[in-house]
Design goal:
By secondary structure, the chain is an all-alpha fold. The protein has a domain of 111 residues: Up-down Bundle (Malate Synthase G, Chain: A, Domain 4). 64% of the residues lie in helices and 0% in strands. It contains 7 helices and no strands. Helix 3 packs antiparallel against helix 4.
């Protein structure tokens, strides 16, 4: 049975549905559960958590790409702190079952696209790698941090800069 509160007051709707579900769990027969929306919201919880993890990882990659592109920029310390924060936020939410749904290559490509849309004034960016060698398992690892992500990007960037290791 649809519940008008779903469209007008989602907080009141969620509280009412939770109360109804608790009554069902206690063995009471309840007929007025808004099953379609309850099911939709339960599914959305997982999608939302996965989207948050992906977003944090993409933001970490974006900031790492800024550092790789402009290693002498005054904002580098800020960008490094942002990478560390985003990595902590991602790993704290990154559940094992999500790993198969996190594609590092796709995240990296989105971060590259986002970087190209940022208006930067000053020196031209250093060349950036089209791909990096990184796995979703590494991104899930709490020990894999900002320095590790930067190292992966710099390792892939080195040949573009004409050397074995990027200076930065």
């Amino acid at each position: 049975m649809p519940d008008y509160l779903y469209d007008t007051d989602i907080l009141a709707w969620s509280r009412a549905q939770a109360a109804r579900l608790r009554r069902i769990a206690a063995g009471e027969r309840v007929n007025d559960v808004d099953w379609d929306h309850v099911i939709e919201e339960v599914e959305e919880v997982g999608r939302g958590q996965l989207a948050a993890v992906r977003s944090y990882l993409e933001l970490a990659m974006l900031h790492a790409l800024k550092i790789a592109a402009w290693p002498d920029h005054a904002a580098v310390p800020h960008w490094e702190a942002e990478i560390a924060n985003f990595m902590v936020q991602a790993t704290s939410r990154f559940e094992p079952g999500m790993q198969q749904h996190v594609e590092p290559g796709a995240l990296y490509h989105r971060a590259l696209r986002a970087l190209r849309k940022i208006p930067m004034h000053g020196p031209a960016p250093l060349p950036l790698p089209r791909t990096i060698d990184i796995t979703s398992a590494e991104l899930r690892d709490e020990e894999f941090g900002a320095a590790d992500l930067l190292d992966r990007i710099r390792a892939a960037q080195a040949p573009l800069l004409g050397g074995e290791a990027a200076d930065a």
